[in-house]
Amino acid sequence: MGFIPKNTPPAEKGAKEPLYFLINDREIAVKNESNRYWIPKESEVLLYNLNLEPSHFIGSWNGHYCYALESQTELPVVNSLEAIPLRDAFTHFSSSGIQAISVAKQIITWDKNYRFCGQCGKPTIEMSGERAKLCKSCGLTNYPRLSPSIIVSVTRDQRILLARSDRFPEGMYSVLAGFVEPGESLEECVQREIVEEVGIEVENIQYFGIQNWPFPHSLMIGFTADYLRGELSIDNDEIVDAGWFSVQELPKLPGSYSIARIMIDHFCNNSLSAD
Length: 275
Known about the structure:
single chain, alpha+beta, Nucleoside Triphosphate Pyrophosphohydrolase, 7-stranded mixed β-sheet, 6-stranded mixed β-sheet, 5 helices, globular
């Protein structure tokens, strides 16, 4: 049984001990047993005197109720419990685990960002029965936010366009991505981002797939596109280098869990099939 997201806390205690997704900034507490990683159970987390924010029920996973918590102190590194970067955690869990971690991270981010009303500045309260925060002073209701973003694989003559941001790990390249602007369609965003970041135009924009990305709360919508015209001219703001790469020339790439890597692997498979 995979992860089943839910908003309403259970009325009764479950048959299995709850799992606690304990997150601190960019890290998550995991249980390490001979390099096999697990989400810790309630008793394993509460054993330590941590300064924890109130928990948020996020659903169930393999019969365990799941709760997201934020720690205001350093995460414990004791016995088999340790803290690892959230992005690294994605490489150690199944797709259900990645989904559960993503939900936990985004709910914690939403809770932190909307403790006060953005309209009048007064404190908000959590509503019962739905995932929302209400300002009792002015009535404004805030729901968890998702920021739509495009990510696009551009190809030209059996080569793929990859770019490097100064935020990436050393030597890593990826496909282009960017946030959707107000009033913009997804296809218009694809065209604008490519022109802004590398100065070329594309055609034949096709939907590829989608991935929830909790850094901090993006919904990554993937597209493929074909090169049309222009020469590469990087913006030197978000992009520090870009180029066309064949399958044999690929640089260091994002992790296999990301839609960026899935799109690059798709290009590689198609290129090898065409040879």
